[in-house]
Design brief:
Largest sheet: none
Distance between the termini: 44 Å
Shape: globular
Strand content: under 5%
Order of helices and strands: HHHHHHHHHHHHHHHHHHHHHHH
Helix content: over 70%
Length: about 450
């Protein structure tokens, strides 16, 4: 017995097992997500001012809205593109071109965002100076490249250290900013300065003045463009629900919705990290061993089902207790939203998009994203007017399922059957268990 335990300890606590690229990236994203959860929890215990909380959430939502699609689109394509290259010089050129491209797009969308925030009815309640918004918007998007720089360079220890530093600094800035200034503008400005420090670190390590090939930036942008458009169109549905809430409800209701609509952060972050790392792995191995590439996704998905389903089960069962404990009882109305969003684990851990991204199937992904966006707008409009806030949550869940069904069908047309990359039996049982506990919880 002792020998068995010792063998298992050696297996799971060796440097090679703990410090793999995928696991360290997952650790970083979990730390960042933990900080994103912890800060509003602390703020809700420090203040009863829902207007302040709603304004801060609106500012974060706005910044993400104008950067998520081009940042995520570029990074999703960068990972397999970088991984298939064996020459270090070419890899450095890809990173440098990507860094310059991110800065350029950030500058363009910053000025576009400034115009939108002052004239759009969606942000009519957000009072913020242009200077603060400019600093935060410009630095926010490109700074996300830093963790992927460590990931691609396989600097595992550096990524773990950075995870602790980044999460701690974020929490300290938000909480101390409120305690000492009671100003969300000061918080955003300080976060912008922290992002600027990360950009300086990136610039020094990537050295774009040495490796950047400005003639190739245009071709790189053309390569990234379909993925940017796909994320813009398909990814917008995650923000459309917040846009509907901000248009039809007050800032205090917006805060309630944002706290309830966070899904289960551990689930979404682990799933997204696995998808990104599996995409790079699939691009490397699919040419030489297709079955091994598919089996990597299949086995990874099976592990995620066994890991994440119990978390979703408990989140649904104790949704009200979790919300009232984290955000205090005054936000109890967010509990039903949290329970519905917890059901998104089922479509979250389906990964047909991983195969399609690695295979550079950008045209099909774009068509599916357009269909998904239209469906989500229709669902949100109907759900909002029939059931209010909870209707928006159901609309988002339905849109997730429609998207995955379309992606699965497209994968099948491309020669990849669902059973080759998804454990159907385990996935179906897990989904039925979550639906059953949700129904039981609803009628209790």
């Amino acid at each position: 017995m002792n020998t068995f335990v010792t063998q298992q300890m050696k297996k799971y606590f060796t440097r090679d097992y703990l410090f793999t690229s995928a696991k360290t990236l997952q650790f970083f994203l979990l730390c960042r997500t933990g900080a994103l959860i912890l800060t509003p929890v602390l703020l809700t215990h420090l203040t009863n001012d829902k207007i302040f909380l709603g304004s801060l959430e609106s500012a974060f939502y706005f910044a993400t809205l104008f950067s998520f699609f081009w940042v995520s689109g570029i990074i999703n394509r960068l990972l397999p593109k970088y991984s298939v290259e064996s020459k270090i010089e070419v890899q450095n050129q890809i990173l440098s071109n990507t860094f310059v491209l991110l800065l350029t797009l950030s500058l363009l969308f910053t000025f576009f965002g400034l115009a939108v925030v002052h004239y759009s009815p969606f942000f009519r309640g957000l009072k913020i100076s242009s200077g603060v918004l400019l600093v935060y918007l410009f630095t926010n998007g490109p700074s996300y490249l830093l963790e992927y720089f460590f990931f691609l360079k396989k600097r595992h220890s550096s990524l773990i250290i950075f995870a602790f530093i980044n999460s701690s600094v974020y929490c300290a800035i938000v909480v101390c900013g409120y305690v000492y200034t009671h100003s969300f503008e000061v918080i955003l400005l300080t976060l912008g300065l922290w992002n600027f420090i990360k950009l300086l670190f990136l610039c020094w390590n990537i050295k774009p003045w040495i490796y950047c090939n400005y003639k190739h930036i245009r071709s790189d942008f053309i390569d990234y463009q379909p993925y940017i458009l796909t994320l813009l169109i398909g990814g917008l549905f995650a923000y459309i629900d917040s846009a509907f809430v901000s248009l039809y409800f007050s800032l205090s209701t917006f805060a309630i919705f944002r706290y309830g609509a966070r899904e289960i952060p551990v689930v979404s972050q682990i799933a997204n990290t696995f998808s990104n790392s599996a995409s790079a792995e699939f691009a490397r191995t699919e040419q030489t061993d297709k079955s091994a590439a598919l089996n990597h996704i299949l086995q990874g998905t099976r592990k995620l089902i066994f890991l994440l389903t119990p978390i979703a089960f408990l989140s649904i069962l104790f949704s009200r207790e979790i919300i009232t404990f984290l955000f205090t009882p005054k936000f109890w109305e967010a509990a039903p939203l949290f329970a519905v969003y917890s059901l998104t684990i089922t479509p979250r851990i389906l990964f047909p998009q991983t195969i399609l991204i690695a295979g550079n199937k950008s045209a099909g992904l774009l068509r599916i994203s357009i269909a998904e966006l239209i469906i989500n707008i229709i669902f949100n409009f109907i759900g909002l007017h029939l059931w209010g806030l909870i209707g928006i949550a159901w609309a988002t869940l339905a849109s997730y399922f429609v998207e995955k069904i379309l992606l699965i069908l497209y994968c099948k047309q491309s020669g990849y059957n669902l059973s080759s990359y998804y454990p159907i039996k385990e996935g179906t049982i897990a989904a039925l268990i979550l639906v059953a506990v949700f129904v039981i919880k609803s009628v209790m």
